[in-house]
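Handover notes (outgoing to incoming on-call)

Open items:
1. VLRF1 domain-containing protein: sequence verified, structure written out, both below. Nothing else pending on this one.
2. Nothing else urgent.
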Amino acid sequence: MQTTHQLISSEDSLSFLRWAQAEKYGIEYQSEKHQLAFTGTEKNKAFLRLPIQTVYFEENAALTETEKHWVILLVRAGAASIGYFENGDTIDHKTFHAYMVRKKQGKSQVKYLNTKGKSRAGSRVRLASTEIFFKEIGQRLDEYLEQYYIDHICIACAKTLWPFLFNPKVSRLSKADPRIMGVPKHVQHPTFESLLEVNRFMQMGELKWDGQNPDIKRFFSGSEEKPLDENDDW
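VLRF1 domain-containing protein structure tokens:
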């Protein structure tokens, strides 16, 4: 199935919700993705990731925008950036770097140990650097959790690094925390610029639908549509 997506504003997100209600689409809120799933006929389906500053009321299928505070954390092997945002405004941020990658193989020490299970002198140095790296991230994250009221914690981090990030010796944050929200966007380099880009992205709604659905195509006529990979995670 060829899927199409489009970033839309909070106002257009509300307009689409009202349109779907008028068209008698079934509506289901998926809290783990802050997303609405719309079902019409078997082929007419759509998904709307809601802007991070919006709240959905299931009892009357209403959508409203409110002030929100959130943290964005981007992590890759050897680099990370974290920021605290109040209603989209950048209040604080920090970037981190560590020696975690084996130069010849281009593989992080964490992944290398998962496949080889051995640790020599260079490996121990990289592991020590990895531990310091995540402790510094955890320290800044805990400062945010202690100082501010936080509605959402948006994280982009490979699951191979979760044991380091969600570690009680690193941070008080648990991976079961209901405020955690995955960043549905690939981040190649977790720089400060990437942090700002993700912040803008999370404040937009993202509509995904079957490109063959003529109703939705007409609803957004005149807007740029972008095809997605068939295996895109809805």
